[in-house]
Amino acid sequence: MCNANEDLDKICETLDKLTLDALYLMQEEIDLKLNIENAMSGGEAHLAKSRYILGLTNVSALQLPTENSPEFSAGLKVEVDEALLGRNVYNLREIKKTEDENVQEPLRWFGILVPQNLNFAQKMFRQALQWSVQAVNVQNQLRSVLQSISNLKEVKTKNASS
């Protein structure tokens, strides 16, 4: 009987630790989502300032590539790495022009001399992308911790009833 109580105590202690981990991960996810929101709104504000400086026709959808545009590749790509316990970890990798000659600098779509606000907007949108990848990784960790909590609760109820 004493051994069953010790097992139950260990399970409860592990559940407490996992619950705290889940709370920390939830807080981290909330912080990342707030950072993403702030970066996106800041990037949009800098984009609006650029549009004001250059004019409505110089910063618009007309400068974006169309179906008739030459082929190009993305400057950043998300890569998937198999990590602990079969959980995927996502990373951003910057594609250098030497690796892929089709990589274009999106700022060049708006001319050669672009306002500094357009550079700031690009940096903020890139930061939002990095935080988005981090948020996905935190969500995966949280999902794993919640699954562990659920499994331990089942074990606890089986041990408590026997």
Automatic annotation (TrEMBL):
InterPro entries: Vma22/CCDC115. GO terms for molecular function: unfolded protein binding. Signal peptide: none annotated. One of its GO terms (biological process) is vacuolar proton-transporting V-type ATPase complex assembly. This is Vacuolar ATPase assembly protein VMA22. The lineage of its organism: Eukaryota, Metazoa, Ecdysozoa, Arthropoda, Hexapoda.
